[in-house]
Amino acid sequence: MILYIFVKLTLDFFRETDYTKYSLHRRVKMHSNFIVPVPKERISYKKSKDPEARYVYYVTKRYRNPKGTPTCDEQLIGKEYPLKPGWMIPNKKYFLFFPNQGEIKPLALPVTTRQAGQGMFLTMLAENLGLCSTLEDIFPEVWRELLMCAIYMVCEGNVMMNADFFWDEIQIPEGFCLSPQRISELFRSVGDEAPTRFFKAWSKLVLEHGETVAYDVTSVSTYADLDMAEYGYNRDHEALPQINFGLLYGSASRLPVAYSLYSGSINDLTFFPYMMNLANEVGARNVFYILDRGFVSQKNLAFAREKEIDFLACAPKGEKIYKEAMKKVLREIWHPKYRISGTELNGLTVTLNIDGHDYGLYIYFSKTNAALEENRLHEHIDRLEAEIESEMKPKRHSRYNKFYNIESTGKGEICSYERNHDKIAEACELLGMFCLLCTKTTMTSAEALDLYGRRGEIEKIYDASKNELEADRFLTHTGKTTNGKHFVHFLALILWSDLHRKIKLYEKKPEKTIERLLLQMRKIKCLNYEIGRTLEEPLTRKQKDILGCCGISEDDFTKRILTAGL
Fold it and tell me: Residues 6 or more apart from 345 whose CB is under 8 A from it?
């Protein structure tokens, strides 16, 4: 009897309001998959962006305003369903006004669901940049496939083996197919001459008149037995054969312009003339090399003068000639008139004669860095003293001789020590200072600093190449495939660089990294029905911000997704 009463009460409970609430919740959650009859009374219509379907409003109250004019309060409850007159697609508000609506028809289930955001976003980015039209001119038969492979690299990285899974998930043109075998054939079809023709057309499109083009080199290691892969100076300190990757980079456009792959055993200086020829060939005639401090040696300076190479490099301030030049301006550079606007640096320019030739030496000083470096130096000296106290039998006295006067026995034991304050003062003298050496003597210290800062942009490109695009290895087995795949990788670098510069210029960044930005766009999905398409969800605020900072119209973006391949 007790069990009977409990079951009856439970059933009565679900027959009443809570069941209605559950039903309402379920209907609200599923509302986008159903259509309902348009209510017969208290309904008004307003235009929507779709000319075949109007917004449906429910009139909640009718009254006259203070002027006596009839008016009403309305709530949007959905939108007409154009394929079935008299029916509408409801929103959440509909079920608040019609909680017991009985006649509900499910829409047709989607045939497929595709990830549509990333591919369309990067495609429109490439179109706005002029990359699509340039590719189509040089590779009329395969340009779309090359672009899609570049988009894959931006989204997924350098490993092409799993690309077919990516094509299965994204919204792509009808009949588009890139199997792993077809991708290898595509890479081999690129050839040796077509990339150079592309570089010429691309440089005309993106380089401004007289724009300075920076140049730098990195190395890419490989496990494969490629003709160009040889042992040489490995910048990643890996005991592997490598191929060197030299890149020309537009300092104003902030885009890659051209590249060259060459043997890993050829040093940078030997390849300079060849890279200069490539620069001339593609139309980048005002090439200016921005180099690290490893370049500045007597032999390399003589080579640059012989080949008439203009460069800007960080000078090794430990060498006597640069150290003396900085000491001469040590008192003067503190003056406020040498402050570089927008930075915490003071800077001035001197002319330095090396082997009978004049160079511009741009010297900089930072009070903040000087204080930090001085603290670190004294902490280091304190650690050295603690080592001497604890051991008194150091294996290398040279470790301490730089800052201490050491007396020791014949057996190597330290008898006594004291700090050499003159040596410590000398070490502190140039803290917070650095200098740049340049073939040009007419720049200001601010101009030289800004130009050298462009080196950081190239380093970011290389960092993105090896890390975000995962091209730290040549995962190929033949020379032709390697050349073709690296050309596609270059296209991916162009897309990444364009995205990076646009996000950087945007005052409020929609995401902290490009990876997170692409993941935001990946959330955009398209439902493909037999009767048409629709987005799974409206664009979010962040997705709209991403489109906005890249100059892409929300309406155009949505329309392209819903009509792609139709």
Answer: 339, 364, 365, 366, 449
